[in-house]
């Protein structure tokens, strides 16, 4: 295996040449070469190079110059590396420009971006057709997908466990207008051809969804081999355990690259540029007919959204989730703004102290 089986193309070769041109002082280093980060194990990562797989880690300079943790190398990234010999770990010196970036708000109270994957073309939003089927969660995944610059595809897995598949399809199409909805059953080998239509040569396809939705099973099914561990879910509530513990790329012979991710029971949204507008386009379009431009859709006279709910054109639960998403993103934006102000004040205070004491902070690495 080499980087060609993991999506290397003329597109990425162009970025590689651009990087060398803008780093002329280093471009002459014959040890510099491109690689892709294919798995993250914490302190070390696994890379695929022209010569095959090898372990690697970010250089000290890269760790210190990347102020934002989200800029650090992540699974899916194309990176610039050097290798001192055939067995030592590779050193990552730079990250090539990203085509897309899938992020979420990290768990915990701190406002912090957590990268899920980069350079993804298509995102399979996997929802099992069992007790864990949840349209409100699907709306969150759709917002994340649209914000990330990837093409979402709704994958309804485990259709063999559902007695009313068409009803579930209608529900999914209702919250994801214009997005492909594919019904599959790996057990009965149904829906495989529809998924493979997105596995074009050189493409990177990621899978996301809650634990137990069947992501690892889909990876094995499409790969034709047991490359990922799988576990059964609890029958009483269809809850799964975290089978996948890290993010990893899997090449499919002469086709695309699959990226499996750990299951996410809670998806806290990170940023919003177009996600809400895409996901709730029907509500936003109707809201333009409200009597008041600042209508909150909570009892105001002439509210077109509430009238649409009464007529059965909109689901009340969907509108409530739309309001919830807006509040969540507004709250996060305020927290992020507060954090930036505090960081700015701290940096200013620290700089003044340095000037008084004569310290030099511009250390050469």
TrEMBL record:
Its EC number is 3.6.1.-. Zn(2+) binds at residues 290, 295, 297, 303. InterPro entries: G_CP_dom (IPR030378), P-loop_NTPase (IPR027417), Ribosome_biogen_GTPase_RsgA (IPR004881), RsgA_GTPase_dom (IPR010914). Residues 325-365 are annotated as: Disordered. Binds 1 zinc ion per subunit. GTP binds at residues 157-160, 209-217. CDD domains: YjeQ_EngC. Coiled coil: none annotated. Residues 118-265 form the EngC GTPase domain. Its cofactor is Zn(2+). Residues 112-267 form the CP-type G domain. Pfam families: RsgA_GTPase. It is found in: Cytoplasm. One of several proteins that assist in the late maturation steps of the functional core of the 30S ribosomal subunit. Helps release RbfA from mature subunits. May play a role in the assembly of ribosomal proteins into the subunit. Circularly permuted GTPase that catalyzes slow GTP hydrolysis, GTPase activity is stimulated by the 30S ribosomal subunit. Belongs to the TRAFAC class YlqF/YawG GTPase family. RsgA subfamily. This is Small ribosomal subunit biogenesis GTPase RsgA. The gene is rsgA.
């Amino acid at each position: 295996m080499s980087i060609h089986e993991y999506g290397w193309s003329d597109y990425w070769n162009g970025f590689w040449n651009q990087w060398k041109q803008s780093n002329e002082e280093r471009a002459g280093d014959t040890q510099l070469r491109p690689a892709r980060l294919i798995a993250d194990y914490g302190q070390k990562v696994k890379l695929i190079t022209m010569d095959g797989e090898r372990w690697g880690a970010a250089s000290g300079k890269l760790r210190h110059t990347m102020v934002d943790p989200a800029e650090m190398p992540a699974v899916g990234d194309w990176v610039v590396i050097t290798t001192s010999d055939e067995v030592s770990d590779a050193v990552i010196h730079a990250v090539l420009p990203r085509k897309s970036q899938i992020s979420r708000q990290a768990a915990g109270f701190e406002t912090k971006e957590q990268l899920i994957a980069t350079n993804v073309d298509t995102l399979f939003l996997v929802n099992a057709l069992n007790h864990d089927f949840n349209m409100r969660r699907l709306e969150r995944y759709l917002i994340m997908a649209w914000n990330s610059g990837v093409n979402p595809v709704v994958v309804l897995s485990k259709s063999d466990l559902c007695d009313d598949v068409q009803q579930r399809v209608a529900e999914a199409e209702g919250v994801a207008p214009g997005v492909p909805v594919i019904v599959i059953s790996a057990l009965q080998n149904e829906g495989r051809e529809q998924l493979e239509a997105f596995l074009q040569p050189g493409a990177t396809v990621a899978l996301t969804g809650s634990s137990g939705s069947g992501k690892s099973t889909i990876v094995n099914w499409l790969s034709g081999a047991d490359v990922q561990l799988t576990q059964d879910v609890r029958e009483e509530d269809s809850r799964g355990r975290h089978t996948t513990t890290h993010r990893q790329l899997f090449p499919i012979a002469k086709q695309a690259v699959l990226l499996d991710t750990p299951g996410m029971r809670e998806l806290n949204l990170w940023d919003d540029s177009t996600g809400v507008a895409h996901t709730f386009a029907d509500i936003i379009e109707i809201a333009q007919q409200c009597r008041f431009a600042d209508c909150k859709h909570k009892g105001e006279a002439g509210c077109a959204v509430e009238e649409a709910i009464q007529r059965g054109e909109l689901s009340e639960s969907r509108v409530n989730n739309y309001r919830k998403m807006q509040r969540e993103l507004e709250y996060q934006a305020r927290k992020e703004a507060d954090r930036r102000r505090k960081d700015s004040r701290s940096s200013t205070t620290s700089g003044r102290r340095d000037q008084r004491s004569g310290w030099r902070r511009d250390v050469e690495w």
